[in-house]
Amino acid sequence: MFESYKDVLTVDDVCRALSLGKNTVYSLLKNGTIKSIKVGKKYLIPKLYLIDFVNNSRF
Known about the structure:
Layout lengths: L7 E2 L1 H8 L3 H9 L6 E3 L2 E5 H10 L3
Antiparallel strand pairs: 1-3, 2-3
C-alpha cells in the first residue's frame, strides 16, 4: 500500500494518496485522526501512520 510514496509524507502527498483536499487533511491532522509529527508549523506524516489511518477508518 502506497509503495510509490516515500517513508515520510507531506500534507500534499497525503492529499494525493487519499484524494482529499488540504483543508480536510489539515483537519484530520489537527484533531489527531491521522497521527503526525509537527516540526515547527510543518506536518510530517510517516507512511506507517497513514496506513494505520486507512486500515482503521470506518467508511
